[in-house]
Amino acid sequence: MTDDMTIQLDSDEYVVRREGAGLRLGRRVGEELTWLETVDLDLLPAPAREALDRGDASDEALLTALRGVAQAEVERGG
User: Fold this and answer.
1) What is the pTM of this model?
2) FRET label pair with 17: which of 8, 38, 62, 76, CA 20 to 30 Å apart?
3) Where are the domains of the chain?
């Protein structure tokens, strides 16, 4: 994945960006993009990493992993 990828999670729009060995997750509301978290790619399950490599924003393994990252941010109060 070389560019940002937009992903719809439920009713929210997120942006993912690969940065070195990490994956950066941001939430888009209107024209505003707020970066929430950067996670180590090795923490994602292999099928989610493979979906990232393919650029498949609809892959269920990737969506599930990103929901977990987004939920962790909510629970931390981010």
Assistant:
1) 0.84
2) 76
3) 5-76
Residues 6+ apart with CB under 8 A from 77: none
Q: What is the DSSP string of 22-62?
A: EEEEEEEETTEEEEEEEEEGGGS-HHHHHHHHHT-TT-HHH
Give the chain's length: 78
Alpha carbons 25 and 74: distance in angstroms, whole number = 13
The model's pLDDT over 18-50, given as tens digits with 9 standing for 90+, comes to 998 999 999 999 999 999 989 999 999 999 999
Q: Give the integer Cα–Cα distance in Å for 44 and 7.
A: 16
Task: Name the β-bridge partners of 28.
Answer: 13, 33
